[in-house]
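Example S7 (structure tokens).
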């Protein structure tokens, strides 16, 4: 089980190193006055520093190395 978690962490860390964030679109209400509603699409960005991906990658490698083989 630990080996699977380690492999997942390695994959997640590699992905986090390649893509340092993502952007998504959210529809927000601007005006809501009875029957009149105005909404706009707003772009939101989620970013993380590249060293976080490196830490997750190294943590996954350590988990795989220290897991016991059955």
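Recovered sequence:
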């Amino acid at each position: 089980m630990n080996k699977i978690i380690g492999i997942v962490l390695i994959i997640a860390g590699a992905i986090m190193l390649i893509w340092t964030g993502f952007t998504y679109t959210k529809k927000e209400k601007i005006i809501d006055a009875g029957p009149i509603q105005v909404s706009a699409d707003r772009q939101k960005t989620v970013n993380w520093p590249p060293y976080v991906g490196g830490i997750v990658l190294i943590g996954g490698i350590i988990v795989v190395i220290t897991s016991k083989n059955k």
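Notes on this example. The CA atoms of residues 10 and 58 lie 7 Å apart.
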